[in-house]
Amino acid sequence: MADQTSHTVKSYDDDIHQLRSLISQMGGLCEAQIIDAIDALTRRDAEAALKVVATDARIDALEGEAEKLAIQIIALRAPMATDLREIVACLKISSVLERIGDYAKNIAKRASALAQAAPIEPMVIVPEMARVVAVMVKDVLDAFVDRDPELALAVCQRDQTVDNFYSSLFRSLLTFMMENPHHITPSTHLLFIAKNLERIGDHATNVAEMVHYSATGHLISERPRGDDTAFATSAAA
Amino acid sequence: MADQTSHTVKSYDDDIHQLRSLISQMGGLCEAQIIDAIDALTRRDAEAALKVVATDARIDALEGEAEKLAIQIIALRAPMATDLREIVACLKISSVLERIGDYAKNIAKRASALAQAAPIEPMVIVPEMARVVAVMVKDVLDAFVDRDPELALAVCQRDQTVDNFYSSLFRSLLTFMMENPHHITPSTHLLFIAKNLERIGDHATNVAEMVHYSATGHLISERPRGDDTAFATSAAA
């Protein structure tokens, strides 16, 4: 193991700082991708949507960098258990962010398809839902950077709002599809978009739980994750 | 760093063997969960479906164990870069398997809802699709255990079949919904079930790429991941 000279200690701190800053960058990009995807959806701008699809590769590349750096830090610095747990937490968070990026990309793909369909009414609720979700992603990254358990807890609590948005959208889209068969294809895209946002909310909550745990050593008491519409037996259920 | 005595070397091998065997266990459980969820769907057995939902906690617990063990191995054995990369790959695979478990759980939730609805015709294609996906999960874990790049490659190639299943199901479900508004709620569940299966196929493919890379040092040339229905502008598209 390397001697714990101040030079080595400083370098380790530099390394971990660089790793955390890569993850912040990923988080910032994810937040922007969600906002841009929904913006393209609202403005019915297929070109802007396809730009979001293309930008996802940058998030994937950052994840690759973060993983490489994490392995390098572990190999060169042989960190103690506490530091190791932090590095592993960083790896997990970067993989969650990569997945959030994928959801934003999928939203953008659907936005490009919806730009060609007639606008549908339940869509007005989607930007609202997206705004809450994008703020969750922003806040959980701020909580990660500042090691702020209170903010992490607030992110977890906001997940219920997202689930409520999703349930309400799910039911109104189903009703909307029943009214007119022409609504079915665009409504299906919107349903998947809402589902993607709901999943992003879940992932932000998972990260918030990790941040809270690593800052306090305490688990946030679990609330059932996911929406309850998976059990729905009718649009009115 | 610990001396490379034969005792230490053996212990490291034991540790990594234990980690890989935890991941095999997770893989076996995931495969069983997919099969059981679809079986509950086909037999319209809500009770069996809820058993699948409950069993998911075992996969989550195994992931926790795998992570703990991985951190312990790194902290105690201070492995060299190649071994470290293997441990990090194990961590990534276990997190993918945890997610596959979540998808199976979500299928089971929807199966329990569908057990109360009238059976719908496009459902016959779902067990076929699920069979392909479950075999992909089984094969990718076998490829992982045997470090078999050929089998990993075969898994990747089968993902196209899954995507074709999904596209075909997507279009027939949309047509089916258009025919009769009463089909909409159950068709929506089936659409999400098919989407979950398609995502499991993607995840199995991701793992197969990791297995192939770690066995050969070569990347499998990328094919576009995900289904093309995200771009669909009508059921006939």
Structure write-up:
The structure is a homodimer of 237-residue chains. Chain A is an all-alpha fold. In chain A, 80% of the residues lie in helices and 0% in strands. Chain A has helices spanning 6-43, 46-77, 81-114, 125-146, 149-179, 184-216. In chain A, helix 1 (6-43) runs antiparallel to helix 2. The radius of gyration of chain A is 20 Å and the shape is globular. The termini of chain A are far apart. The A-B interface holds A 1, 67, 70-71, 74-75, 78, 80-81, 84-85, 88, 91-92, 95, 106, 109-110, 112-113, 116-117, 174, 177-179, 181, 184-185, 188-189, 191-192, 195, 226, 230-235 and B 1, 67, 70-71, 74-75, 78, 80-81, 84-85, 88, 91-92, 95, 106, 109-110, 112-113, 116-117, 174, 177-179, 181, 184-185, 188-189, 191-192, 195, 226, 230-235. Chains A, B: It holds the Pfam family PhoU. Chains A, B: Residues 23-110, 127-211 form the PhoU domain.
What is the straight-line distance between the termini of chain A? 61 Å
What structural class do helix, strand and pairing data of chain A support? mainly alpha
**Which spans of chain A have pLDDT < 50 for at least 5 consecutive residues?**
1-5
**CATH level-four homologous superfamily name of chain A:** Phosphate transport system protein phou homolog 2, domain 2
Helix content bin of chain A = over 70%
What does the overall shape of chain A look like? globular
The structural domain count of chain A equals: 1
User: Mind summarizing the main beta sheet of chain A?
Assistant: none
Second rung of CATH, namely the architecture of chain A: Up-down Bundle
Strand element count of chain A: 0
Beta fraction of chain A = under 5%
Q: Which radius of gyration of chain A do the C-alpha atoms yield? A: 20 Å
Quaternary structure annotation: homodimer
Give the CATH class of chain A. Answer: Mainly Alpha
Subcellular location (chains A, B): Cytoplasm
Function (chains A, B): Plays a role in the regulation of phosphate uptake.
Subunit structure (chains A, B): Homodimer.
Keywords (chains A, B): Cytoplasm, Phosphate transport, Transport
